[in-house]
Amino acid sequence: MHTPSLYSFLLWCLGAYLAGSIPFGLILVKLAGKGDVRTQGSGNIGATNVMRAGGKGLGILTLVLDAAKGFAPVFLAKHLGYPAEALSWIALAATAGHIYTPWLKFQGGKGVATALGAILGYHPAMVLPSLGAFALLLGIFRYVSLGSVVAALLVIPTALGLFGAWACLPFLMENLARYGVVAWILLPMLVVRRHAANIQRLLQGTEAKLWGGKKGAPDA
């Protein structure tokens, strides 16, 4: 295990933030000649709205690239021997970069795909409880936003080992463990905060469903 200096740790966090800040959805829709995705549909730069603005192919590509920009910095740092505590903050930085991208006046996407990629880079098994809950809720209620919010919140107990050691990485450096815990609380809360409008519509019964619901409503 590599014990990073503060300087190298901060550089990794900055690099992860900048990687996460790349607005792939916006770039792909513009390159395809479909205009500015922020002026279409929900105005979100994520895969769902890209699919609405530019078609299924662009939406899928955006999903993959948004996940990749979260996955890459965490995966690379992990294989360079960085401890779980450092990886936790690198994952948070990548997700924050997508949500608060400096290139778009700190107005980015909702962070779900980038967070998923970051968690896969951190420890692939850690996504399983969240993916299971997302699939179950989506199948029953057909709300992407509901599944996303619950899946994000489940990251916290999963990271803390409440679903078993198989689903998380242990915090090996006792003096830093509490800081790793903080990162795994902040990351899902950022995602939930970006879904505030969706949560409000869920409570009001006006949120769009994935199929069979109102058309043209903002996406998750």
Structure write-up:
With 220 residues, this protein is an all-alpha fold. The chain has one domain. Helix content is 63%, strand content 0%. The protein contains ten helices and no strands. The radius of gyration is 17 Å and the shape is globular. The mean pLDDT is 91.
Question: In terms of topology, how is this protein built?
Answer:
Layout: H1 6-20, H2 24-31, H3 47-54, H4 56-79, H5 84-99, H6 112-122, H7 128-141, H8 144-159, H9 177-194, H10 196-204
Helix pairs in contact: 1-4, 1-5, 2-3, 2-4, 3-4, 4-5, 4-6, 5-6, 5-9, 7-8, 8-9
Report a brief summary of the structure:
The protein is mostly helical. 63% of the residues lie in helices and 0% in strands. The chain has helices at 6-20, 24-31, 47-54, 56-79, 84-99, 112-122, 128-141, 144-159, 177-194, 196-204.
